[in-house]
Structures are given as C-alpha cells and as structure tokens.
Amino acid sequence: MPSSEQQAAKRAWWREVVERQAGSGLSVRAFCRQESIREPSFYFWRRALREHDANPPAATPEFVPAVVGNIPQCDEAILLQLAAGQTLRLPVTISATWLAELILALDSPGER
Questions:
Q1: What are the tens digits of pLDDT across the range 34-50?
Q2: Of the candidates 39, 54, 69, which is a domain's last residue?
Q3: Does residue 111 surpass a pLDDT of 70?
Q4: Which residues contact 38 (CB under 8 A, 6 or more apart)?
C-alpha cells in the first residue's frame, strides 16, 4: 500500500493535470490524447479529487513533547502550557477523555 506521502504526491500531480486540462480549452479526450494520459484514469482522478476536496480526511492528531520544569506549586489544578505560550488551568477532577477532546480541539486547525 502506498504511503500517505506517495498518495499526497499522486494527488498533487493529478490535481495539476486536471487544472491544466480545464485551462487548456481542449476536451478531455483531446487533452488526454495530447498528454498521453488514459482517459478513464483522468476521469477517475478528477472525480476522486472532487470527493477528496468535498470530504477531506479527518486530521490525525500529532503529539508534541511535554516539557516539565519549574511548574508553580498547585494542589487543586492541572496547568496545561500551550505552544503559543498560554496556560490553561484545569481542575484535577477533569476526565482524561474530556482532556483528550480538548487537546484535539485546540490542535485542529480547520475548526477555529
């Protein structure tokens, strides 16, 4: 199975091909003939790209290393230092599930 990087490169190549055809003024058949591209492959990728753009895959959360040091003494809260420098003070009773959902929401670039 191709890696996600290979799939992304293939999508990028086909996206460029589809855009060139759209701007060429040629029919799909004439463009594919001129570019030596199989017409069924062109139609497959054009549809796949439209579907991908309409329903992008969910972002995979990335984990970052946690740096622990010189944290002020705090018996009643969890302090969460964000990459941008902000600190969240959360109750020690927070559920692990809710905390994971919070971190995922903060890390999701498209949902702000």
A1: 999 999 999 999 999 99
A2: 54
A3: no
A4: 32
